[in-house]
């Protein structure tokens, strides 16, 4: 699959699911990026990534989903 096709597919999957993913209490961000060397979706959580993984598949329509714990940012 061409990179542009993979990007468009990832965007479509993200749009289709982001509302339900953002409704999960730990999810704070959703983006598209490099997941294990291919275009995928990265979901940022503030804690308990395993609890979120139970609710979100590791792959949807051939697009890999990575869940990352994010550190809190504080303005100086």
Features:
about 80 residues, alpha+beta, GMP Synthetase, Chain A, domain 3, four-stranded mixed beta sheet, 2 helices, membrane, transmembrane, transmembrane helix
Commentary on this structure:
With 76 residues, the protein is α+β, with helices and mostly antiparallel strands. The protein has a single domain (3-69), classed as GMP Synthetase, Chain A, domain 3 (2-Layer Sandwich). It is 33% helix and 34% strand. The chain is built from two helices and four strands, in the order H-E-E-H-E-E. A four-stranded mixed sheet has the order 1-2-4-3. The longest helix has 20 residues, at 3-22. The chain is globular and about 40 Å long.
The rounded Rg comes to 13 Å
What is the CATH first-level class name? Alpha Beta
Q: Write down the oligomeric state.
A: single chain
Uncertain runs: none
- Tally the helices: 2
Sheet with the most strands: spatial strand order: 1-2-4-3
The percent range for strand residues is 25-35%
Q: Biggest sheet: strands, sense, closure? A: 4 strands, mixed
Beta-strand segment tally = 4
Order of helices and strands: HEEHEE
Query: Would you tell me which CATH topology applies?
Result: GMP Synthetase, Chain A, domain 3
End-to-end separation: 44 Å
Could you estimate the helical fraction of the residues in percent?
A: 25-40%
CATH architecture verdict: 2-Layer Sandwich
Mean pLDDT: 92
**How many domains would you count in the coordinates?**
1
Class by SSE composition:
alpha+beta
Shape: globular
Keywords: Membrane, Transmembrane, Transmembrane helix
